[in-house]
Amino acid sequence: MYNASPGAIATIKAITVVSRCTVVGLICLLLVSARQVTAQTEAVPPYRLRLLGVFDEQTGNPIDGAKVSDVLGRTSTVTGKTGVVSLVFLPEGMSLVRLRKLGYEPQTLLVNISPSDTTPLTLTMRHVFELAAVVTTAFATTIQSRRLSGFKERERSHASGYFINEVTLEKSASRQLADLLRGRLPAVGIADIQGEPYLTASQRCRDGADHGPPQLYVDGVPAAPDWIPANDRPMPPPDQTPFSLTRFQVSDLAGIEWYPDNTMLPMEFSSMSKRCGVLLLWTKY
């Protein structure tokens, strides 16, 4: 029978103690990490977890693998087998969201993330013929060209309004949108509110009437204001709420149209709203 020396026994005891400390340390580390993850999850308010469901227009079946992207923020997620995703990756306020899936026509919509907008969203996508991978980029370009065709036609005719085309936008890609608009569009009203530039009343509409700020369109879709009221500044009426310009980067835009009063509006953008004027932003994507 082998009798270990006192030195060997001491070494074995030391290794055992170190092993136990290592195991305890790992357990403690796992517990701390779990608590941190739980705290981060609990820190996300419920309205930030707004849901979007994507379904086939013809069959009503959920669409698996549809890419849901924040166009301006460049973040995205993908639907699963249920066709439902959480929009937690979107920032506070208004975002331009685009959905793509091979074999379906792309969809674009504006989504607002705020404590008052918690209702789950449902979107249907129209099935089109399958496209080979090599044609996908050309198909996306065709969709973009279709969206911008109206902008280009109005710019060519120049019947009314003011335009900033893609050439000018590329040269001004490093500028802030608010600064670009102030420098190139006549009568545009922009004011700094709570440290952010907002599109406010057009200077052509100050005739004593109860006019609201211009309406903002993104890719032809009317935007909803993303006004965040201060403690001493309540939410204005819908027609009087200005639009924040912080979310939009000049480098993301392919065209801008500006109509400073309602007498200049193209028919497709006229409405019965008390707002006066229209600003249209057309994106590259």
Features:
285 residues; alpha+beta; five-stranded mixed β-sheet; four-stranded antiparallel β-sheet
Summarize the structure.
This protein has 285 residues and is an alpha+beta fold. It has helices spanning 6-43, 133-157, 166-171, 177-184, and strands at residues 51-56, 67-70, 75-78, 84-86, 93-100, 107-113, 121-125, 162-164, 189-193, 196-200, 215-218, 221-222, 243-244, 253-259, 278-283.
Low confidence ranges: 8-34, 36-41, 130-140
CA-based gyration radius: 27 Å
Mean pLDDT, nearest integer?
79
Q: If strands are numbered along the chain, what order do they take across the biggest sheet?
A: 8-14-15-11-12
Secondary structure: helix percent:
25-40%
Number of helices: 4
Order of helices and strands: HEEEEEEEHEHHEEEEEEE
The proportion of strand residues reads: 15-25%
